[in-house]
Design goal:
Layout: E1 2-6, H1 9-31, E2 34-38, H2 43-51, E3 62-66, E4 68-70, H3 80-92, H4 104-108, H5 114-129, E5 142-145, E6 170-173, E7 183-186, H6 188-192, E8 197-201, H7 207-215, H8 222-229, E9 234-239
Parallel strand pairs: 1-9, 2-3, 2-5, 5-8, 8-9
Antiparallel strand pairs: 4-7, 6-7
Helix pairs in contact: 1-2, 2-3
Length: 255
């Protein structure tokens, strides 16, 4: 695990963009495409801010998924797709067919069973990663995640039953502690199987939980479980406010 801290969110955005560009180029050179899963919240704006200054990213070969999504219409203000479309996708020319969203058909039918949305989204994963031989878990080139003040990430919340899910790739949640309650989320096995994982955390509200996640080896917070399971493939990018409580030994020198 590598943990870096920067003066402000602008510098965090720049470093995130460097990682995304490098990961994208390597994946496209090797496989002809780049598979990435994104969280919502403030991440789309941070990603857009950084990539706006970067040249040479082959966005035409990206396939984009969401680490989690709220079961709302795609143009709803709570939709992760909507947030990403407004802040990022529309600014870099990503085409609609490159972006894997909730089933528009199910949304139009006003489907109420969240399991059906999860199953359909898992089907999109199966289709995208089907060329991998005897695939048991999809392996994204990069997953970019946020971290809540409670240590949640994706729609995986502390002490929730979904943390035990080890079969499904995509799971429904109908009792999210944060509204809206109905969501779908990638499960822990999928997230931890990615080639590279980047957590982005900014703001003083997260400094206490980040210390637990990165310095308490017994932590069972979702962000900690991912960091522990994929420690050699996980990078944390923080501003100084979020990393304030970390010991110097935890932080790596800037790259």
């Amino acid at each position: 695990m590598l943990a870096f801290t920067y003066e402000d969110s602008r510098q965090v955005a720049e470093k995130l963009a460097e990682i995304v560009k490098s990961s994208s180029a390597a994946a496209i050179e090797k496989n002809g495409r780049f598979t990435i899963a994104l969280s919502g919240g403030s991440l789309p704006k941070i990603l857009a801010q950084g990539l706006a200054q970067v040249q040479g990213v082959d966005f035409a070969k990206w396939e984009v998924f969401f680490a989690d999504e709220r079961v709302v219409p795609l143009d709803h203000e709570d939709s992760t797709f909507h947030a990403c479309q407004e802040a990022f996708f529309s600014k870099v020319g990503l085409k609609r067919e490159q972006i894997h969203t909730l089933s528009e058909e199910l949304l139009k039918e006003n489907e109420k069973d969240v399991q059906n949305y999860a199953d359909e989204y898992e089907g999109q994963l199966v289709h995208t990663f089907a060329n991998a031989s005897t695939i048991k878990v999809p392996s994204f080139d990069l997953i970019v995640l946020g971290c809540g003040p409670d240590g949640h990430t994706c729609s995986l919340f502390p002490n929730h039953e979904l943390l035990k899910e080890d079969v499904a790739w995509v799971a429904p949640i109908t009792d999210s502690p944060k509204p809206p309650k109905e969501r779908i989320t990638l499960t822990l096995p999928v997230v931890t199987h990615a080639h590279q994982i980047v957590f982005v955390a900014t703001g003083a509200a997260k400094k206490t939980v980040i210390k637990e996640i990165l310095e308490d080896a017994t932590s069972t917070l979702p962000s900690a479980l991912i960091t522990q399971a994929a420690k050699d493939r996980t990078t944390w990018l923080m501003d100084n406010a979020a990393s304030e409580n970390l010991s110097r030994a935890t932080l790596a020198d800037h790259f």
